[in-house]
Amino acid sequence: MRVGLAGVGRIGAGHAETLRGIAGIEEVVVADADSGRAREVAAKLGLRAADGVEALFSAGLDALVIATPTAAHADLLVRAVEAGLPAFVEKPVAADLEETVKVLAAIRGSGVPVQVGFQRRFDPGHAAAREAVRSGRIGWVHTVRSCTFDPVPPPDAYIPTSGGLFRDCSVHDVDAVRFVTGREVAEVTAAGANRGAPVFAESGDVDTGSALLTLDDGTLAVVSATRYNAAGYDVRLEVFGSRDSVVAGADDRTPLSPVGGGTAPAGPPHTGFLERFAEAYAAELRAFADVAAGRAASPCPPEESLEAFYVAEACEVSRRERRTVAVEEVRR
């Protein structure tokens, strides 16, 4: 199988290294808007570089991985599907909700498999939490808490085009809550704050936010995010049930210092998402290889991504308008 990779920036370069080691993938062809960067990554990893992203569509590919900046996702995904290429696309499918809906309408019924990159579905801790819930081991679930705390903010130039904290960051927590519980979100109440760099407020965004999600069975879930957690990169998901409680992401590298007793983390904290989810990123691409080869159905089809986006959109509306928002309000 010959797999193309569009985009070899920070996450794309990591994907390139993973793809070359997957059984059944004989060749990886990489491309980037910066052709020099594509050639550099190809030379380092022993891959082939195409003369630009456009050239991937005439490279005899069997599948395409899309890891470009968000603005290019929608067009590349539609083109891949129209060309009959199974596609893996990093979230989000498109830059905003309206375009996401249009993309899904364009590819619906094509029969071409698409997988969206919500890597937490492949994190061992999140998968184990899901099993604990689905098996009934922890009883009925009453509370879920999921957090994404970045150690430092992204570059200033990224903020105005990110879509906002809930759409860009907390959408991962939303998908994780849905994935682990197997429930849908009925309504949200969200709030945000700015105590850091002025670029967030200037962009209509927030640097810290939390949302209370009421699930369709009455379970309460809280998702929290911040761009300022200097202690380290912290992603955890806690599930509290009538019989037991479990947590994903709490280990000897969790950046929390106990006070008044307890044991401090033994190892250094994770520095970012690429390190924290290295195993999950590799696992999702191995899964995509099976999808592309026709051995498995997509573990995260674009319809799943859209549902998470609806909830993130509802959170953003709730934050701006300071009210509870039913997810049905934003559904297209």
From TrEMBL:
Residues 1-118 form the Gfo/Idh/MocA-like oxidoreductase N-terminal domain. Gene3D superfamilies: Dihydrodipicolinate Reductase, domain 2 (3.30.360.10), NAD(P)-binding Rossmann-like Domain (3.40.50.720). Pfam families: GFO_IDH_MocA, GFO_IDH_MocA_C3. Residues 127-246 form the GFO/IDH/MocA-like oxidoreductase domain. It comes from the Bacteria. InterPro entries: Gfo/Idh/MocA-like_OxRdtase_N, GFO_IDH_MocA-like_dom, NAD(P)-bd_dom_sf. Keywords: Oxidoreductase. Belongs to the Gfo/Idh/MocA family. This is Gfo/Idh/MocA family oxidoreductase. It comes from Actinomadura vinacea.
